[in-house]
Write a structure and sequence with these properties.
Layout lengths: L15 E5 L3 E6 L3 E6 L13 H7 L4 E4 H4 L5 H16 L3 H4 L29 E2 L11 H8 L2 E3 L5 H20 L7 H4 L3 E2 L9 E9 L13 H9 L37 E10 L11 E8 L2 E9 L7 E2 L1
Antiparallel strand pairs: 1-2, 1-6, 2-3, 3-4, 5-7, 8-9, 9-10, 10-11, 11-12
Length: 321
Amino acid sequence: SVHNDPKHLNLKKLVRIRVYAAGFFVKVVGDNLVELGYISQAALGGSLPANLANVAAKAQPQVCMDFKKYCEGLDEAACRDLENDGRELLLSFDKAATEFVKSGACSDAGTADAYPSPPRSEAESTISLAPSIAETPSPDSRVAHQQLHGETRLGPAVTEEREALTAVGLATHRTRQQVQAAALVTSSSGASCDWRFVKEVRGVTILQSCTSSHGWLGRGIVNCSAVRLFRLLRNLKATYKFDGFLKTARTLAILDADTCINDYYYEGSSHRWSMTTAQRHRREMDGTLLVVRCSVKYSGEGQQGELVGTPSESMPNHFVN
């Protein structure tokens, strides 16, 4: 079978753990199973240990992808491309690209609807914000961005793995260029967001919200975070059902999502902001993106309202009212 091909990584023998900055990790374990997870500093007493690989090896994953499952019905070449691209996708995750998926539950490999709690509706899903928010945000988001992308590689060195890492390095470089303006609120405020998603039967629905009691969001860092994953997927040769929230056909013409970056910012200690983003993508034969909607709700100091917009045709990577 494809999975016994000596040219492939023998995942039954390979247990590879890659730990990124702030405790994000990717594990390749078992039979074609990749796990993505997060180790919180709070759970470890406020500091991340040096032996993160050992901790990650025992940690409960939050997102699983079973490559063997996705090879059903594909020929050998297509399956190889699918496995390689999927592995490249997951191994190239850094903090900016993993933050929004870290709270999804994964009880069984390949289970599409494994969530910690059922969503309230198909039109709404929430995230929780950690109570500790830095009192003064960093004045230089570039420094924070560099910190987000710092990573530590741990695990056994294998010839095939080195080759895979070379491909990952190229993908990561491309990815970082694409997400340069999409650093999370955490990059400046120190807040921590847990993202939860729901899926839509026809097409894909991504929903998220974020509340900051500090009231400072930072220019250019509030964004439609799910697009980061879309941008990774868009450059791959195949597409995937990423357990729970992404369900697509195998085609190159999908997920051509626009960024929806919000440039809104406000400095005020008594303000309370809530960002709620609802993106609906429905694929037609030509891969047309039909609807993208972004909104920012805010209240405080006698002010409240909602900012709603869609990407402009002339500047598709910018949010417009």
